[in-house]
Amino acid sequence: MCGIWALLGAECSEKHSEAFMEIVGRGPDLTVVSQVQPNVFLGFHRLAIVQPGHVASEQPIVAGSLSVVCNGEIYNHEILKKNSHLAEDKVKNGGSDCASIIHAFKTHNGDLRKCCAALDGVFAFVMVDEKYVYIGRDPMGVRPLFYGFDSEGELVLGSEVKCIHDLCDRVEIFPPGHCGTISLAGARNDIRFQQYFAIPTTPERMITINKQLILTQVREILVSAVQKRLMGNRQFGFMLSGGLDSSLVASIATKYLKQKPVAFSVGFGDSPDLENARKVAEYLDIPHKVLVITPEQCIDIVPDVVYALETFDPLIIRCGIPHFLLCKHIAATSDVKVLLSGEGADELFGSYAYMQRAPSSTHLHKEILRRLTHLHQYDVLRCDRATSCHGLEIRVPFLDKRFIDLIARLPPSFKLIADQMEKFVLRSAFEGWLPNEVLWRSKEGFSEALGKIDLGDVVHEHADRLISSEQFELRSHLFPWKTPDSKEEFWYRMLFDAFFSHKKMTNVVHTKVYRTAAWHMVEEKENCKDELTAVEKSLANDRSLSSGTLNYTTHCRNPECREKVTSQALESDPRTASVAHQQALRVVSANARSEEEAHNVRLNFPSKRTARRTYQNHARKAYPKADSGKIPECFKVREELRRRRSSAPARSPMSSRRNLKFIRVGLPFFSIVFGGAFGLHYFQQVRYDFRKIRAIDDNLEHLRGDLKESGLKVRNDVSIDTVYKEVVELDTDSWENIRGPREFEDLSGYERIKQNQKEVNAEARRKKAETYN
């Protein structure tokens, strides 16, 4: 984690230097400000991760007229340097992985868009030559970058708002997945943006999906994402909450790190996450350090958190408080400089509680895209600011470019499965990497997992005492922009306005992202699952009572709540309630063999009914001789279901749904198929005959034309009837043999005889006609 800063169009004065030093915590090992072009200054705060203290890793990195400062890590830097035509000894400070930016820029002949697309990593850089300033930011905005202009056209860029806030009239976010170019000869505010990366918005069609192949790809790409983020020779650590995401990252990284990492956890004294994190650390055989915090510590640190995070969003600040305290503790008590975290997985898989209550998979997919689009203003922002201000660096494998591309293309139905837990694909892909009670543990909110004391309640009660009702009534006059909805948010807003001017940051601060989903209720917490009231709200908004029950009983940790909801659902839909209990049993079961078989069945069988029956058989084998007092709840429900079915009146075979479906759908289908086949046969025969007659008529017309051209008389009305009439009219009784002339004889006599014969025949026909009349 480093800090970068750039000034264009002015001389670097004392006020500029003071502003630059506001982010010195991002890089306490080295501070440099260099003039690389006339009125162009680049600043760099270094946090040494790779080759600490080595001169070759310093910045700015210079190659000819190009100079660059970068905050980030380029994981494919060796490949980029190897494929470049630029010799590494021609690059000053070329030992840094960020020097590969210049190599990629040269390889692509100065095409900034192709250069950024070729980089595999997280980065925010500013590069300058004699004519242009080149700016780039990583696809998901893991590394921050802001810019602003003053009234004189001076451009300032920096890693955080606080280092440019006092130098410009307005602060803007440099968009993730974009690069930009500024001409030094033109206006400073003319930034030509280009987008080089976009999150896939169209998922793959189901017909192209191979489920086993998807699980393999998810596992291989995530393992690769973690491996590449182990670059560096400083002590590594994990922010271990005991949940799926952080535990999975820790499990993968532990397999490939040479030096044993350290796990860190934070929470109140009664936090369930501390116990779960301890189990994961013992399973991975790594040191585990715990920071137990108190509500008083959380309240006292709020002003520092608001200043560090540069926001007043309640959710970010609540989650940022324990995060900030833990990072402060890590920096003060250990040598760890690099932390691995599981951020981004919940957004990618849509595993937040309100997301799993989406009306349909299409709604879920749209919400996932919306959350990913704003991720750099929420969880990514919190992770970056809370760690960087203490001289630490955080890395997030779930936001790897390849992994995002894979998960975003998965059909939404893979992320919203009615009878499965959230992140079912991820959990199934890493069977055996974690204990089952961790791998199949449902998601909890960060503040909820801190203990029985809810951090949100702590700060809310403090804000109630701090802010009077009279003050709160004036909130719309005091804060017309993004007016606070609660006293807690009112308090955060007061602290924020004491540090920053909201008029300069109207496009920077984004709040309440999870409350804007169409189906989400404002009063409901983002990850509430244990309270029965939340369950009832979920059932009211869900697709059906049975699916809501199934979703709840799968995740609920409170046996009494689960029993109550299931008994209600049993009255309306006993079959689905039975499935829900079986799913809950699978989550908490200690029988690894039956769980593994159940997962394989559910992945390999497209039919949910077949999968359920197969799992029931596995579960029956697991409890072959259990008495009534020890029978799991799912068997009790199943026996109740059997009793009701046996007492139901018998139905005739023709009343079954399957037979009715055949009559309604099958018979019309076969009728159309066979009827169409016969009809097509006769149609083709008629068509063939017509074409044949038409072809004969066309030949006769051509023949008549040829005969007329040769001087022969052609009769048009020739038919069998006309020819027969002429034959009948001939006088076959009186005839005379007339010798025809030779070629050398005179023809006049012959022609005269023929003419006389015609006249005789005509006369005979006339007389015969008169006789008939």
Number of helices: 31
Beta-strand percent range: 5-15%
The Cα radius of gyration reads: 42 Å
User: What level of helicity do the residues show?
Assistant: 40-55%
Uncertain segments are: 521-562, 568-581, 583-608, 625-633, 652-656
How many DSSP E strands?
17
Decide which structural class fits the backbone. Answer: alpha+beta
Report the mean per-residue pLDDT as an integer. Answer: 78
The largest β sheet comes out as:
6 strands, antiparallel
Instruction: Give the CA-CA distance, first to last residue.
Output: 124 Å
The quaternary state of the protein chains shown equals single chain
Strand order of the largest sheet: 2-3-1-9-8-10
Q: Overall 3D geometry?
A: elongated
Walk me through this protein's architecture:
Belongs to the COX16 family. It is a single-pass membrane protein. InterPro entries: Asn_synthase, Asn_Synthetase, Cyt_c_Oxase_assmbl_COX16, GATase_2_dom, Ntn_hydrolases_N, Rossmann-like_a/b/a_fold. This protein is α+β, with helices and mostly antiparallel strands. The protein is built from 31 helices and 17 strands. Strand 6 (121-128) and strand 7 (132-137) form a beta hairpin.
